[in-house]
């Protein structure tokens, strides 16, 4: 242990602790901007400077460790003045038109500048200018970048893709796409993790809210909205609602107030995905000698983009099942249009997703088969739908919970856990077990694949067949897993991959709480919803059973293939 004094308070902390952590663990906050624990500890912003008795210069608290007898001041006149100058200098190179910024009210720079009482920027404004690719789902605003390097680090260390790098030198230093490429020429997976780790508004998703407002105002359009599994665990965060209050049924009433005609659940098609993908896997197992294993899940578009750019020779190992989002669009504009007895081109299909890559997915030509424009017309992130709720001045606190519309709003507990890493695998195994044995397993029989670990594996018995499964989330973990498969170090039959750490719960379109990872907490909500659902198996969803009876026939039928599957190689 080391004895130190911070702001006249005697403290004992273990050796090797940073000054920042020592202060934090004793409820002494030191403001910081670029710091991310174990990811970005480079002291680039110099906002966390502190004074140490006997040392002439100020030091950064995030990457200097305590020493025996250190006397530290976190808020002395010298610290305050330097911190203020540092923030003013950052602001002089930052487009600080906060009123027109997507992160206003949720921006670390804004908070720090306000806390320091900065009311004017005494330095000449010097903003960088660069063109960004118009319409790309991921948007970079160079004028807001504060060069904290977080995007570089998260893309490099967590996602293993190195899309960002520093460009130019000196005062012209900026962050840009690496190797002088345009973003669309890079291998960006569109996971959005750089967005959720940006402390300011330099990175954000393409805003598609106006397209939805226009559709809602168009009387000829029938607006249909689907809510992704993981959205229900997070939508209330930015609105200051508690998890208990911000239920999915309150989101349903909020969307109804907004004017959507039909409010449905992506969970319905998550159940459908299980029927199709589970059957596909069992077919492959029957024909083991002629098939390549493992089969990989295909519901995460960030992962599909990664597979296509990094391991194109393995693309044929992806399940042919479309994602629940795309299955929903196809079903809404075929089966549901028939139920409504309307021309499918009148249906305007909106998705609310915790994901930025879904904006790309809905646009992929081989994922659009219903024949009435795009199957999913617009994808909104959780953050965008929160902005729409605000824009409409809807106060969810005043609304009662309401039910989803039927039949595409009926779903099982197996579907809701899709939103957490391991959930797709667990849901698929529940139904695969039934399809093989004609008996339901204990719904929690496959819970070994739950939890935040980035790479999990398990072996399960399916009627005497040992099935080796693995689950990975985060693309860095994914790369390690695939390399191990390619090197013959591991062998699996079925693998679930999600691009974002923790799965969709930690998706790149979810609300941002700077420096805090919320995937685990949100996953708990989803597992709780599974537990209390009367239906725990996709094959027991009565609306799915009816959809097969009345429309699709059976899993892997001709119609299923046309609407719900795709050739991933295209
Ligand atoms: Fe996901 Fe999925 S789980 S990919 O994370 O398979 O985005 O939530 O909607 O499509 O169901 C996301 C979540 C989501 C799909 C489903
Ligand atoms: Fe990297 Fe994901 Fe950001 Fe693309 S979206 S640059 S892959 S972190």
From TrEMBL:
Compartments it resides in: Membrane
GO molecular function: 2 iron, 2 sulfur cluster binding; 4 iron, 4 sulfur cluster binding; ferredoxin hydrogenase activity; iron ion binding; NADH dehydrogenase (ubiquinone) activity
KW Translocase (keyword) present: yes
Cellular component terms (Gene Ontology): membrane
Keyword tags: 2Fe-2S, 4Fe-4S, Iron, Iron-sulfur, Membrane, Metal-binding, NAD, Repeat, Translocase
Alphabetical list of SUPFAM superfamilies matching this protein: 2Fe-2S ferredoxin-like, 4Fe-4S ferredoxins, Fe-only hydrogenase
Gene Ontology terms: biological process: ATP synthesis coupled electron transport
Entries under NCBIfam families matching the protein: FeFe_hydrog_A, FeFe_hydrog_A6
Listed name of the protein: NADH-quinone oxidoreductase subunit G
């Amino acid at each position: 242990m080391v004895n130190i004094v911070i702001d006249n308070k005697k403290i004992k902390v273990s050796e090797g602790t940073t000054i920042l952590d020592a202060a934090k663990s004793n409820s002494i906050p030191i403001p910081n901007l670029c710091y991310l624990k174990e990811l970005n500890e480079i002291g680039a912003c110099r906002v966390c400077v502190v004074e140490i008795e006997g040392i002439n210069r100020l030091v950064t608290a995030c990457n200097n460790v305590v020493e025996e007898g250190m006397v530290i001041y976190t808020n002395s006149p010298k610290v305050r003045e330097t911190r203020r100058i540092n923030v003013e200098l950052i602001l002089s190179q930052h487009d600080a038109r906060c009123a027109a910024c997507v992160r206003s009210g949720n921006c670390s720079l804004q908070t720090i500048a306000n806390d320091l009482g900065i009311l004017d920027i005494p330095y000449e404004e010097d903003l960088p200018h660069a063109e960004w690719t118009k319409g790309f789902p991921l948007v970079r605003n160079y004028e807001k970048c504060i060069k904290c390097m977080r995007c570089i680090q998260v893309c490099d260390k967590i996602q293993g893709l190195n899309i960002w790098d520093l460009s130019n030198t000196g005062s012209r230093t900026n962050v840009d796409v690496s190797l002088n490429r345009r973003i669309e020429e890079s291998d960006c997976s569109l996971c959005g993790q750089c967005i959720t780790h940006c402390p300011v508004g330099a990175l954000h998703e393409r805003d598609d809210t106006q397209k939805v407002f226009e559709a809602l105002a168009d009387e000829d359009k029938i607006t249909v909205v689907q809510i992704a599994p993981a959205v229900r665990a997070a939508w209330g965060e930015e609105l200051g609602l508690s998890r208990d209050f911000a239920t999915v049924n309150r989101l349903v009433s909020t969307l109804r107030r907004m004017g959507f005609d039909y409010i449905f659940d992506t969970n319905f098609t998550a159940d459908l995905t299980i029927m199709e993908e589970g059957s596909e896997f069992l077919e492959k197992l029957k024909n083991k000698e002629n098939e390549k294993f493992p089969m990989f899940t295909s519901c995460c578009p960030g992962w599909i983009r990664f597979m296509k750019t990094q391991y194109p020779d393995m693309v044929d190992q992806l399940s042919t099942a479309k994602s629940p989002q795309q299955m929903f669009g196809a079903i809404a504009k075929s089966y549901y249009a028939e139920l409504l007895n309307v021309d499918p081109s009148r249906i305007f299909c909106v998705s609310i997703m915790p994901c930025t890559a879904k904006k790309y997915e809905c646009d992929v030509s081989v994922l659009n088969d219903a024949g009435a424009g795009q199957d999913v017309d617009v994808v909104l992130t959780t953050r965008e739908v929160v902005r729409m709720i605000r824009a409409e001045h809807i106060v969810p606190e005043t609304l009662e919970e309401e039910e989803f519309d039927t039949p595409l709003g009926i779903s099982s507990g197996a579907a809701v856990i899709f939103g957490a890493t391991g959930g797709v695998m667990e849901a698929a195994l529940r139904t695969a077990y039934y399809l093989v044995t004609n008996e339901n397993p204990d719904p929690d029989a496959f819970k070994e694949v739950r939890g935040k670990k980035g790479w999990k594996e398990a072996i399960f018995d399916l009627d005497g067949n040992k099935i080796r499964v693995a689950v990975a989330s985060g693309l860095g973990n994914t790369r390690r897993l695939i390399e191990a498969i390619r090197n013959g170090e591991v062998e699996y039959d079925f693998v679930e991959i999600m691009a974002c750490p923790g799965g969709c719960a930690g998706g790149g379109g979810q609300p941002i709480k700077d420096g805090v990872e919320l995937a685990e907490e949100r996953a708990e909500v989803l597992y709780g919803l599974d537990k209390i659902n009367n239906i725990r198996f996709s094959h027991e969803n009565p609306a799915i059973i009816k959809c097969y009876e009345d429309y699709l026939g059976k899993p892997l039928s001709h119609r299923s293939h046309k609407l719900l599957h795709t050739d991933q190689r295209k």
